[in-house]
Amino acid sequence: MMRPLSIPILALFLCALFFPGPGLCMGAAPGMAGEVTDAEGDSLILRENGRSIQAREGTALFPGDEITTGPDASLRFTLSGIGEFALAGDTRLDLAEVFSGEEDEPGVLSLAAGYLWSRVDTGGKRTVEVHTPTTVAGVRGTEFETVAALDGSTAVAVDEGTVEVTVGEEAVMVGPGQMSGTGPDLAPEPPAPAPEKARRDWGAWRKTRRENLMERLPAGAARLRATMERLDQRAQRDRERMLSQAETLARDAARLKGLAKTRGPEAREARKEAWKRFADGFQGLRGTVQSFRGSISRARACARLCHVVSAAFEKERERYGDQAPAVEADLKRVEELAREMKRDVQGLRREIREKFKDFRKLARGREKAGS
């Protein structure tokens, strides 16, 4: 039987485990995640250690890598046990959490801006989530396209299987031949017929939204700031809830340890009840963690999107006249929140990952509760 984890350690772990990735945590990658299968044009891969390399066919990919494609570039890659993927030009993608070490945890790709084609293995045991600043697309065994524009708009077009598209607290199921997503106002779109694949012009779609953003950048920067603040508030709320749930689980774990030494029919029933309570509580905690890690992943996408928007703003700063200081303040606030999140979780993943595995094993003991 494991020793109960202390609440501070467990809380720190939950933040670290579900917030890995470039710029937001430090530590060695647990292992190779996949590889580049084709690369045309200039594409860069930024490792967690800060090293930047040119993407080439056969280049290894690791959890936490940032991939940036040039204006005329394209890139294809595979992720072991997950599927095949392709990026178009001017795309920024993080391999945020492609390996969590557990099949029941989804792999997460964070798309800040650009185009991502995904074909997720139908026989795979893990779900996959694509996070943009405004949308989460969750799948298991399907082919679909995800496109994120600079104004925060996201489009998800499905060609095979079904994709659950979540915007805020609302979710819709998108089937073959359909598309959904959100506009810059964060209003979810109901599933609608998608254009035939050969007729989809995502480049024009992104260009139109970029032009609209630059024309209305003061309002767009304010929306980006509001999105980041909502994500931060949601993460803080989930953090507090995790602390409460973790405290309860620690007490339950201590009780299980004590019951392990008892004998007799009454003790057996007590252990069975305690196992169920613990397992149910752990499932609740995992749900909160999923919400937390979703907010964090989307926040990372927001931070990267802000970097791109800031660069565009500096080139056209004079265009906005007296509104320029407000735009700058909104964009700086997004960057400030990203730095605060980084400080919250930096450097903790390696220290306590193994302890969480023990915690998970204890939760799985529910299957043996009657023995």
Description:
The chain has six helices and 17 strands. The protein has a 17-stranded mixed beta sheet that branches. The relative contact order is 0.14. The chain has helices at 7-17, 202-215, 217-259, 265-315, 324-345, 349-364; strands spanning 34-40, 43-46, 52-54, 60-61, 66-69, 74-79, 83-87, 92-97, 107-120, 128-131, 136-139, 142-148, 154-160, 163-167, 170-174, 178-182, 188-193. Helix content is 42%, strand content 25%. Helix 1 (7-17) packs across helix 6 (349-364), helix 3 packs parallel to helix 5 (324-345) and helix 4 runs antiparallel to helix 5 (324-345). The two termini are 15 Å apart. A hairpin with a 4-residue loop joins strand 10 (128-131) and strand 11 (136-139). It is α+β, with helices and mostly antiparallel strands and 371 residues long. It has two domains: 28-201, Jelly Rolls; 219-368, no CATH class. Residues 1-30 and 347-352 have low confidence and may be disordered. It is globular and about 80 Å long.
Helix/strand layout:
Layout: H1 7-17, E1 34-40, E2 43-46, E3 52-54, E4 60-61, E5 66-69, E6 74-79, E7 83-87, E8 92-97, E9 107-120, E10 128-131, E11 136-139, E12 142-148, E13 154-160, E14 163-167, E15 170-174, E16 178-182, E17 188-193, H2 202-215, H3 217-259, H4 265-315, H5 324-345, H6 349-364
Parallel strand pairs: 9-10
Antiparallel strand pairs: 1-4, 1-6, 2-3, 2-5, 5-8, 6-7, 7-9, 8-9, 9-12, 10-11, 11-14, 12-13, 13-16, 14-15, 16-17
Helix pairs in contact: 1-3, 1-6, 3-4, 3-5, 4-5, 4-6
